[in-house]
Recover the amino acids of this structure.
């Protein structure tokens, strides 16, 4: 997945399929870039399915356990979260901006000496699919629902 979406490609050439190694952590990838954690920050990254209020409760819970917690969010929620480091990677209204800044955003967390980074999730379609592909790999397939 990338800036040209699967839907755009299908409009031109017809139905396409996704290599199973991209979707299943147990499958062997055909090349290193298909699967491994190139985007991964130093701290553990976890993708969180849930409302922002639930994510904030999780942040507080982890901080009470003594962890330094960062949050990867969007401009729409940047001021909502109270964590040790909050970084917005763009706007949900412009996922191209999120995709364009994702690598740098994940690298910016490294200067904060965090134990854990919690990331909001994005729609798994269009450019959102490319964003989620990179986030899932960077998180080492760690996804929780709250």
């Amino acid at each position: 997945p990338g800036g040209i979406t699967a839907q755009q490609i299908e409009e031109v050439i017809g139905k396409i399929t996704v290599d199973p190694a991209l979707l299943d952590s147990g499958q062997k990838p055909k090349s290193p870039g298909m699967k491994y954690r190139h985007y991964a920050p130093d701290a553990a990254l976890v993708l969180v399915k849930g409302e922002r209020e639930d994510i904030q409760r999780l942040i507080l819970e982890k901080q009470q356990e003594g962890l330094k917690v960062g949050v990867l969010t969007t401009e729409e929620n940047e001021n909502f979260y109270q964590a040790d480091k909050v970084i917005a990677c763009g706007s949900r209204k412009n996922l191209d901006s999120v995709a364009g800044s994702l690598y740098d955003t994940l690298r910016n967390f490294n200067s904060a000496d965090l134990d854990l980074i919690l990331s909001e999730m994005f729609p798994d379609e269009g450019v959102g699919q490319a964003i989620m592909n990179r986030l899932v790999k960077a998180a080492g397939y760690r996804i929780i629902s709250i």
The first strand starts at residue 44 and ends at 49.
